[in-house]
Design goal:
The chain is an alpha+beta fold. The chain contains six helices and twelve strands. Helix 3 packs antiparallel against helix 4. It binds fe (ii) ion (FE2). Fe (ii) ion (FE2) binds next to strand 4.
């Protein structure tokens, strides 16, 4: 049975994401895709794996970093048929993002940490050609993202310290002009690669993001327990000139300023990578 002839959305979504077994080679993805039974509680093996790993995260059996490493490896095992991607492209986003960015949550699961609620989600990112996803930091969120179609220009930054409310010190640590289906995944945790900025310079990009929210006790987050903002993405401006040590003072910016970034390619702003 060909995936392209399927029409029922729930069945298609159950089939879209297939996690391969540890011994699966690149071609076994196609076999798994075509051989998977329908139903399965509307969850493919990939979502089942996401549930298992997020359970371990919840129970403290996996650190946030280990969870992201695990899910990144699972993302890189995915092999998707062209018509699956075409289905997602035609379906399009159902959540408006900044500028022309759009999103679609295709799986969500509530998590319950000891003293706080959390969530694990699979989210499709739609970035039209010429659009950028504005630079942002993440508070108490961990995520990994794989490009499924197209190519992102990506910059990642490490957060160094809080300077004052609304300003963080960051350092650019990657300049990746072509991130495609071949990888790498774009990973971040509260303490690593937490700020990023990406744009679709050459054509539209479709990417799949796995995210877990509120994973840390507030006191263990970069911003600490007195932070009044909830877990989420917060836009920052990383384009101020770096000092001699590569340190950039990045201000939190409002939605208008973030929207302005969506209309500019990253290449409009010089990379501030420091020689290592
Ligand atoms: Fe992000």
């Amino acid at each position: 049975m060909k995936i392209s002839r399927l029409t029922r959305r729930d069945f298609i979504e159950a089939m879209l994401l297939i996690g391969l077994s540890a011994c699966g080679g690149p071609r076994s993805g196609h076999r798994a895709l075509k051989a998977s039974p329908s139903g399965n509680g509307a969850l493919g093996p990939f979502f089942a794996k996401l549930s298992q790993s997020s359970d371990k995260l919840m129970r403290g059996e996996l650190t946030a970093g280990a969870f992201i490493k695990d899910m990144s490896a699972r993302l890189m095992e995915l092999e998707l048929e062209e018509d699956v991607l075409e289905h997602w492209r035609q379906e399009g986003p159902n959540i408006d993002g900044e500028g022309d960015n759009g999103y679609r949550v295709i799986h969500a699961r509530e998590l319950r940490f000891v003293d706080r609620p959390g969530a694990a989600k699979a989210v499709l990112f739609y970035t039209p050609q010429g659009a950028s996803n504005p630079p942002h930091e993440h508070h108490n969120i961990v995520s990994t993202k794989r490009v499924l179609k197209g190519s992102y220009h990506i910059r990642q930054y490490e957060r160094l310290h809080r300077v004052e409310p609304g300003i963080i010190a960051i350092r650019q640590v990657t300049e990746l002009p072509e991130v495609t289906f071949a990888g790498p995944t774009v990973d971040m945790t509260d303490d690593q690669l937490n700020v990023h900025w990406f744009g679709a310079s050459h054509g539209p990009v479709l990417a799949l993001n796995i995210v877990a929210e509120n994973v840390l006790p507030p006191a263990e987050t970069f911003h600490g327990q007195n932070e009044s903002r909830g877990p989420g993405r917060y836009f920052v401006d990383p384009t101020g000139k770096a000092d001699g040590n590569g340190v950039i003072l990045a201000r939190t910016i409002d939605d208008d300023a973030a929207n302005a970034f969506t209309r500019r390619p990253l290449a409009d702003f010089p990379s501030q990578m420091t020689p290592t």
